[in-house]
Specification:
Blueprint (H helix, E strand, L loop, with lengths): L1 E10 L2 E12 L4 E4 L4 H4 L1 H10 L9 E7 L11 H11 L11 E3 L2 E2 L5 E2 L4 H10 L4 E5 L3 H4 L6 E5 L2 H8 L12 H10 L12 H13 L3 E4 L6 H6 L10 H13 L15 E2 L7 H5 E2 L4 E2 L1 H4 L4 E4 L7 H5 L2 H6 L1 E5 L4 E5 L3 E6 L20 H6 L4 H5 L3 E4 L5 H4 L8 H18 L14 H7 L4 H13 L6 H15 L7 H9 L11
Parallel strand pairs: 3-4, 5-8, 8-9, 10-17, 10-18, 11-14, 14-17
Antiparallel strand pairs: 1-2, 2-4, 6-7, 12-13, 15-16
């Protein structure tokens, strides 16, 4: 007897339907075909134990299980439940009536319990698009799938519940998630605040500009100056996620298995801070079976790289393409996957190996030339993609002990949202462009025009400060963002003057 159940395979952040065909005929063999990996092949032992421990058994006949399409490699333990149900249906222990209306997915433990699996959100979205009535899955994954409206999400604790439901002997409680409540819950979560930072008003201003225009930023200064503290507070001034961004971000975290059982939707912007010993594969994604890396997990959020020169140079160089394209493509011999990676990069580093070059109170003990050698670990093409370079100086004791608190993140965020709104209107005719940092050279000429006085200021700055040629476009982009914060139609001389300050590392004499 032939029976079909329906599961899914996830490639990248999209799901492909897998039809599990179970045929029982003559013989006593068990064949599992359709390019299964080791975890899928081992499902035979898990299914056998789970059924025996719940009063069922695999029939002693010839069983062939085909995972179609057979030319796509299947991996993971999510096929345990649909294979087990298919075997029971083919041996007439489970009714077939509902099998064509539900996706079935889940890992079996030996006692018949259902364990959670990765990538449920893309699977649920695929089930909805294909017109399935619902999805049967482990209870721990139910909230994650529950955000897909119009799909019946049935979270079961064990295989017996699933069998009884399919036989019409009981009901499984449906899981529904209110997206508006999820967003309000996420916004109310406690977060670090800009008002916690004493002093550093110029750095706060630079980060406000970075958030407003989507500009990458590098903070350079001595240990203890507050670089990490400021970077961790950047997500609190970014505009809140909209529903499309939240779904994009949640899909990536779902595929990577980063969602907790109580979490259904990521409602706050991600903040990822990998250690400098990270490998290039862990940073950008990949592996034998590709998985998202840190840059994709930071999609729609902030990627913080502390102690930037300590990272392996090869690791940093692989950042260049995704920083420009905002998407990471991982290619293999038989397939390729794409992970979105639109992140705001915040990098921090010491100015020299000892950390005290240009320190107002402590003397640098590095040998001559060490400062430049240390910073030469950062390639020009990488720095070319970072719009704002700013020096962070230590906070005076008088400011640290002051009772006066700075602006709250909520106040700064309102200005950032207003500036982003101006940019959205400007770039409405351009698909995929949402902020000033994404402007092409042609768009810079169209939207960043400056008068003769501004041209003269920029020329003098490049000559006197020794700014490199690549700084020209970056200064114009940043000045456009500063103008947006002031709700100005044209870039003024004051906007240009402020933008010029944010190119410290482009000065020819820096570090010499």
């Amino acid at each position: 007897m032939l029976v079909k159940t329906f599961g899914s395979a996830v490639y990248g952040v999209n799901a492909t339907t897998v039809t599990i065909e179970v045929n029982i005929g003559r013989g006593i063999n068990f064949f599992l075909v359709g390019l299964p990996d080791s975890a899928v092949k081992e499902s035979h032992q898990r299914i056998d134990a789970a059924l025996k421990n719940n009063g069922y058994k695999i029939p002693g006949k010839g069983i062939t299980v085909n995972l179609a399409p057979a030319d796509i490699r299947k991996e993971g333990s999510a096929y345990d439940l649909p294979i087990a149900i298919g075997i029971l249906a083919a041996s007439e222990k489970v009714k077939e009536d509902l099998l064509s209306r539900y996706f079935i997915i889940g890992e079996l433990s030996l006692d018949g319990g259902l364990n959670p699996v990765k990538g449920i959100l893309p699977v649920a979205i695929s089930a909805k698009k294909l017109g399935f009535k619902g999805i049967i899955l482990p209870k721990q994954n139910a909230r994650e799938a529950g955000i897909v409206e119009g799909l019946e999400v049935l979270g079961a604790s064990n295989i017996v519940e699933v069998i009884n439901f399919l036989n019409g002997e009981c009901e499984i409680e449906k899981t529904n998630v209110n997206i508006e409540q999820e967003f309000s819950h996420g916004v109310s979560d406690g977060e670090p605040d800009f008002s916690d930072v004493r002093g550093q008003e110029n750095i706060k201003r630079a980060l406000e500009i970075a958030a407003s225009g989507g500009h990458n930023v590098i903070l350079i200064g001595p240990p203890g100056a507050g670089k990490t503290m400021l970077a961790k507070r950047l997500p609190t001034i970014l505009p809140p996620l909209n529903i499309d961004e939240a779904l994009e971000t949640t899909k990536i975290h779902s595929v990577a298995g980063k969602l907790s059982p109580s979490q259904s939707l990521i409602t706050t912007r991600p903040f990822r801070a990998p250690h400098h010993t990270i490998s290039d594969v862990a940073l950008v994604g990949g592996g034998a079976y590709p998985r998202p890396g840190e840059i994709s997990l930071a999609h729609n959020g902030v990627l913080f790289l502390d102690e930037l020169p300590e990272f392996n140079r090869g690791v940093l160089e692989v950042l260049r393409q995704p920083m420009e394209e905002r998407i990471m493509t991982i290619s293999r011999a038989k397939f390729s996957v794409e992970y979105q990676s639109s992140f705001l990069l915040v990098a921090a580093c010491n100015p020299c190996p000892c950390g005290y070059y240009n320190h107002p109170a402590r003397e640098c003990v590095c040998a001559p030339g060490m400062v430049q050698k240390y910073l030469n670990k950062l390639s020009g093409p990488l720095l070319d993609r970072i719009d704002i370079h700013i020096e962070v100086t230590p906070v005076p004791v008088s400011e640290l002990s002051s009772e006066r608190s700075g602006e709250k993140s909520e106040v700064v965020r309102k200005r950032v949202i207003k500036a982003r709104s101006n940019q959205e209107k400007r770039f409405m005719p351009f698909q995929g462009i949402y902020c000033n940092a994404q402007m092409s050279s042609k768009m810079i000429r169209d939207f960043c025009r400056i008068n003769a006085e501004g041209q003269e200021l920029l020329k003098r700055a490049i000559e006197k400060l020794g700014l490199s040629a690549r700084a020209y476009d970056r200064i114009l982009k940043v000045s456009r963002t500063i103008a947006d914060l002031d709700s100005a139609e044209e870039i003024q001389i004051t906007h240009l003057a402020e933008a010029i300050q944010y190119r410290s590392l482009d000065r020819d004499n820096w570090g010499q």
